[in-house]
Amino acid sequence: MLPATHPKFVRKVKPLYLISEYETAVYAFMRGIDYIVEECPNAVGATQLLYKDVLNRLEHASPGTKQASCRSSSAAASRPSPRWRTRSRRCAGKCGMPAYGTLCSFCRLVRQVEARRSPPGAAAPV
């Protein structure tokens, strides 16, 4: 279980984060669980696919690299950054949750959806 990064945030539980994509696929196959093999068509050109390819090449050249990287990232994440305490502020939206910017991700998304629903020429909701 990861520590909470803010009193208003829930702690995250990631029990399978050290399980590889291959091991997950083998488990699904052995259990007869259908899974999608193809990449998402919306992911074309996404940097995440580039990172995934680079990590897979590193893992092929030096087995254990991905897991070591994951473990060190996890160890670093378990120590809350002092930056959070100095940079966090309340969301300027309706929710009042902590945010790095003026709006949290949720309020920013709500604002974008409301702006798309507004008729042309109408003022954007605040």
Structural overview:
There is one protein chain. The chain is about 45% helix and about 5% strand. The chain is mainly alpha-helical and about 130 residues long. The radius of gyration is 20 Å and the shape is extended. The mean pLDDT is about 80.
Rg over C-alpha atoms, rounded to the nearest angstrom: 20 Å
Q: What general form does the structure show?
A: extended
Number of H- or I-type helical stretches: 5
Number of strands: 2
Sheet bearing the most strands, described?
2 strands, antiparallel
Name the strands of the widest sheet in spatial order: 1-2
Helix content: 40-55%
Strand content: under 5%
Structural class: mainly alpha
Low-confidence stretches: none
- Return the string of H and E elements: HHHHEEH
For the residues shown, what is the average pLDDT?
80
Cα(first) to Cα(last) distance is 37 Å
Secondary structure elements and pairings:
Layout: H1 21-31, H2 47-61, H3 65-77, H4 82-87, E1 89-90, E2 98-99, H5 105-117
Antiparallel strand pairs: 1-2
Briefly, what is this?
With 126 residues, this protein is mostly helical.
Offer a few descriptive terms.
single chain, 126 residues, mainly alpha, two-stranded antiparallel sheet, 5 helices, 46% helix, extended
